[in-house]
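dude i think i finally got it to work??
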Amino acid sequence: MRSKRLLGISSCLILLGTSLTSCAPAAAPPATPKAPEAAAKAAPASPVATPKPAAVQPKRGGILKFTQESDPATVDPHQMTSSISYELVYASYSGLSRWDVSQTSRMVPDLAKEWSLSADGKTYTFQLREGVKWHDGQAFTSADVKYSLERVKAPPKGVSSRWASLFLKVSSVEAPDPQTFKVTLKEPQPAFLAFTSAPWLPLVPRHVLEKEGQDVLAKKVVGTGAFRFKSYERGVSYDAERFKDYFDKDRPYLDGFKQFIVPDVGSRFAALRTGQLDAIFIFPGITPAQAEEIAKPELKDKLVVQKGAVEAAWYFAMNIARKPWSDVRVRKAVSLLWDRKASIQAIEDGFGDVGAFMSPGSPWSLPKEELANTPGYRADKSADLAEAKKLMADAGYPNGFETTILTRKGSSYEKGSVFSADQLAKIAIKATLNVQESTAYTSARLKREFDTDVQPLGFGVDDPDAVLSITYVTGGGQNYTSFSDPESDRLFAEQSTTLDQAKRKETVLQLQRRLLDQVPLVIQLWRGRALAHQKYVKGYNFSTNLYNNWTYIDVWLDK
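look at this
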């Protein structure tokens, strides 16, 4: 059936979970079939239920208690720029499709129950579920989907969408009847179907925005997801309750959840140990030292640890619109001097991996042996540092210069900034930290009001169209460095429409080599993550993807 084939293609785009301690060599990306000669009607598809242990049935009820480290800058799902926001409201929204909570690398239907692809590979037709309601009781229709995609693709005045560049190939969107939605692309795009999954395209209520204005979603959460917003006290907690009219009548099992805002990592862990919290799910999770503590006799029978690599990187960004960062020689010098292995220990306590612009475990990443011999990534830093000093002298800065580092308030962010300042000092760049609360930080970054910036960057889909477009393509929705390189843009455009996966991969590798030469930013490391929860918390699965398992629809409390 065509719908099952499409689901399979999409799942191939996503990186399967791998352990940081045992990573097999990445296989070549699977071949993407060309469009069929005739359009195929998709057979009905339904979300796959999470497998349950024999003789164990989920218990209903209870409030799941967990934490995150700071307040979000906004809760508008189309204007979010960090996981801090998604962590709060992800469970309240739905997409056309979503990631399976039991196999978090597989895409399954959400509000679209089935779909088909035209013969030329350019038109997707989605059939939507009947009887779906928004949290305010209004009916969900294809008009909401059309409105949502158009809001993301071409945001109205006052709305910022970092996902806009993902939908540049969309030629038209139609809602011919309340249960049918059509998207026509300018040309085939292998990654498009994966982009229909949240968080890329969370569906928002047209009737609310048209009545109350574009600013309303920054303070009001109205979705179709399994949990409805209940209350939020900044700096204290966020509460959501089970949505009794959720379209999957068997889900969720919980009565609701409560997220406490706890900035200190030690305080979060102490609350977990004493049973005040059920879990620490949210990024960055627990530290490696805390994971080791849980393995000790007094805790191992009480708490569970899940860990692995994640599709998120720490970067050091330079504002190319400002001197001296506009000089590629200065940017190259910084990339050369960076001790990436040391950054893993300094920022993530040893839990991470060295990589370039695609995740180290991805089939799209540069080969490890090639990267290990690339200037800036070599184990012996002496030659790199000597070349960095020469480049600084050639650029006119033999004695360095002064700069500032913008960063978000929080222990992990500040550790990353302190380490960055230490690295810059190797070539006499004196950096002063500019630490801001999330709202102020986000505003400064969006307005490009910074010299340099330290921040983790996560991705919802392990595909070059998603990972590379928003940050390294001219005008990308998260291209805060103002990087613009015609050759990089050309290579990106070429790979984006290449259906032959072997050819596409080679172009992606060429693009990454070009980015290493132009240095739009420095990838310090790719992160690892460990989460922990009480043994009575069931139905939550670790995912390499930060966004895949924040619906909580299958979580239940065995107590």
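The longest helix spans residues 501-518.
im so relieved honestly
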